[in-house]
Amino acid sequence: MTTSATEDRILQILEADAQASVSEIAERADVSKPTVRKYVRQLEDEGVIVGYSAEVDPKKLTGQSIALVGMDVDSEQYVDATNALKQLESVESLYSSSGDHMLMAEIRAEDGDSLGDVINEEVLEIDGITAAHPTFLQERLK
């Protein structure tokens, strides 16, 4: 077994179940518990694992709506705009993108109207953000 194969197995297990215990991961990856601890610590230190989270079904949230928002950004203001977006409390996650938009953000608010307000009054007010294209999430299918 190669090191990368061991890392891949551990990562696949954690991606499927971020709450898996070291014992569970060791058993499923066919390695020892100290090996799991070593690789997880190393992957965290290297920034490969950046956090652990729960997956949420937007339809089942009470009092909260979620949108994925693609944003177009003036390339000369990209760094400042990105830093400003990171400071917004309603931005749950932010990604650079090679698709139709330079940035993609998961934005949460109490309802659809509030999400619209966040996009119009906070996101689009950031210098360098030239357009925002929201997609409102309705139901988690997988």
Automatic annotation (TrEMBL):
Pfam family, one: HTH_24
GO BP terms: response to amino acid
KW Endoplasmic reticulum (keyword) present: no
InterPro entries: ArsR-like_HTH, AsnC-type_HTH_dom, Dimeric_a/b-barrel, LrpA1, Tscrpt_reg_AsnC-like, Tscrpt_reg_AsnC/Lrp_C, WH-like_DNA-bd_sf, WH_DNA-bd_sf
SUPFAM superfamilies to which the protein is assigned, alphabetical: Dimeric alpha+beta barrel (SSF54909), Winged helix' DNA-binding domain (SSF46785)
GO cellular component terms listed in the entry, alphabetical order: cytosol
One Gene Ontology MF term: sequence-specific DNA binding
Domain HTH asnC-type: residue ranges: 9-65
Keywords (A to Z) from UniProt: DNA-binding, Transcription, Transcription regulation
PROSITE patterns recorded: HTH_ASNC_2 (PS50956), HTH_LACI_1 (PS00356)
Top-level division of the source organism's lineage: Archaea
Record's protein name: Lrp/AsnC family transcriptional regulator, regulator for asnA, asnC and gidA
Organism whose genome encodes this protein: Halolamina pelagica
